[in-house]
Amino acid sequence: MADELQKILEVYLQEYGKLKDEQAQRIGFRDNLLYVTLALFGTVLAFILGDNENPYGLLVLPWASLILGWTYLVNDQKISAIGRYFRYTLVEKVSNLACRAGADIGEIESIFGWEIAHRSDKRRHRRKIEQLIIDEIAFVFSGLVALIAFSHRVSGAIGLIQVLCVVELVLLVILGIEIFLYADLAKGR
Fold first, then answer.
1. What CA–CA distance (Å, rounded) separates 70 from 66?
2. How far apart are CA 137 and CA 97, in angstroms?
3. pLDDT at 1
4. pLDDT tens for residues 16-66?
5. Rounded mean pLDDT, 152-163
6. What is the pTM of this model?
7. CA 64 → CA 33, 53, 131, 150, distances in Å?
8. Which of 95, 104, 146, 181 could potentially form a cystine with 61 if both were Cys, beta carbons 3.0 to 4.6 Å apart?
9. Which sequence spans correspond to the domains of the chain?
10. DSSP-assigned letters across all residues of 1-34
11. How far apart are CA 70 and CA 73, in angstroms?
12. Quick one: CA dihedral 23, 28, 29, 33, positive or negative?
């Protein structure tokens, strides 16, 4: 029986290790998306404001905001989902296994202590709100500013361009709402 429990525990710990690796990769990718967004915006703005000034290039920025923002949001959600899985499901599985083996539950939960402890930081809520604001600025506000700048630089845009602007506006608003809804502002477990 003890050997069987040990094997199950090893499987759980391997699962933890693999998911932790995936979480770390997603964090790196997600965080780099902010730098990619800044670089892309700088490049497009340099093109738009350069010698051959082309205000239609401003319509590229909302699409870039949408694509990079959505990719950022999906990765951020997966990072949070993995953390929730650790805090609720995996801790429970390992704790139940430990109970069956007669181990001390406190020792088992301390294995996953960081998964809970870092969420109890006194400044976490403030940091998460600040991150929410930065995400909204980087991926939504910047696209909206590009649309406003375009409408001021190209007065009387016609037909398809107007429809494109409205579609971009609607999609940016939806992205902004999704970023807000997925912001993990909760504290503790």
1. 6
2. 46
3. 61
4. 999 999 999 999 999 999 999 999 999 998 988 887 778 888 999 999 999
5. 80
6. 0.85
7. 11, 19, 20, 15
8. 146
9. 2-182
10. -HHHHHHHHHHHHHHHHHHHHHHHHHHHHHHHHH
11. 5
12. positive
